[in-house]
Design a protein that fits this description.
Layout: H1 3-33, H2 40-56, H3 62-85, H4 93-115, E1 131-133, E2 136-138, H5 140-162, H6 164-174, H7 176-181, H8 186-208, H9 218-233, H10 238-258, H11 264-278
Antiparallel strand pairs: 1-2
């Protein structure tokens, strides 16, 4: 296995893990509310911005800053659901989707007002000294991305299969009518789903911004890639979101390395379209 291929492989897995986190956020809300939550793209930007303020304005250490950023975005996500979506009192999915589009624009405007339009830099979680892995040079931030993504997936699995609230959310996702009949509180489930989606988006923003630039709209393109990953894997499927994210990241990296970086987005989305032509519900969609 050539060193170049390993380099592209690690690069693809790194960005693919970010896409997977964002895709999982889309899937959590879709499974409990049946809608596409377009505010997810701005949760990514907000996570990076809160981390920036925590480290460079408040002077917090790295770990407390990361926890503050993730929990802060989760809190904002809960406020979005409680005061942005719930007052609509509509069960029409199209109405709720358009509401998320409007809330996304509002939240992006607030981020721009608070932090401005200038691009900023966020330091990595640990010193940026490359390490050798099977002959390939890998930045420690990439290893942190992979490690924390695996940890987040493990925590999600534990939550959904080992806690009463997680089981309630699975029940709502499986059969909303039956869940309502047995008394599962829909409002609490929806609030929790938004909190989880916000936390996943915030974590993605914290992890990805040290290897890219930070701005009020940095999450838009990343969010669209995460949405594409969710569709590729099968919208609503958690294993599909992970598979779709990693697959999309690998496609981008390998096409950039062996074809041209100018065509990496084109190649990834062409493959996405081909997969959907053959299997419209995605790789693992039911």
């Amino acid at each position: 296995m050539s060193q170049d291929f390993l380099q592209y492989l690690f690069s693809g897995l790194t960005i693919g893990a970010i896409y997977a986190l964002i895709a999982l956020g889309f899937c959590v809300v879709n499974n409990t509310m049946g809608i596409v939550n377009f505010v997810q793209v701005d949760f990514v930007s907000l996570g990076g911005m809160i981390m920036f303020s925590a480290l460079l304005t408040a002077g917090l250490p790295m770990v407390p800053g990361l926890l503050l950023a993730v929990s802060g975005v989760a809190l904002v996500a809960m406020l979005v659901e409680r005061f942005g979506l719930r007052p609509a009192r509509s069960e029409n999915h199209l109405v709720l989707i358009f509401l998320t589009v409007g809330l996304s624009i509002i939240l992006r405007g607030i981020i721009k007002l608070v932090w401005g339009k200038n691009r900023m830099a966020l330091p990595p979680l640990t010193p940026d000294v490359p390490v050798k892995v099977f002959g390939a040079s890998v930045l420690p931030q990439a290893l942190w991305i992979l490690l924390l993504t695996v940890l987040a997936i493990g925590l999600l699995t534990w939550f959904f299969y080992r806690t009463s609230l997680g089981l309630s959310m699975r029940a709502v996702a499986s059969n909303p009518t039956a869940a309502a009949v047995v008394g599962i509180p829909a409002g609490r489930v929806r609030l929790t789903s938004y909190a989880i989606a916000g936390a996943l988006g915030g974590l993605a923003g914290v992890l990805v911004t040290p290897i890219t630039t930070l701005s009020y709209d940095v999450g838009v393109l990343l969010g669209l890639k995460g949405f594409a990953a969710a569709i590729l894997g099968g919208f609503g499927s958690f294993p599909g979101a992970i598979l779709g994210g990693l697959g999309l990241g690998l496609l981008e990296s390998l096409s950039a390395g062996y074809i041209s970086s100018a065509y990496k987005d084109v190649v990834a989305f062409v493959v996405l379209l081909l997969v959907l032509f053959v299997r419209p519900k995605g790789l693992l969609g039911k």
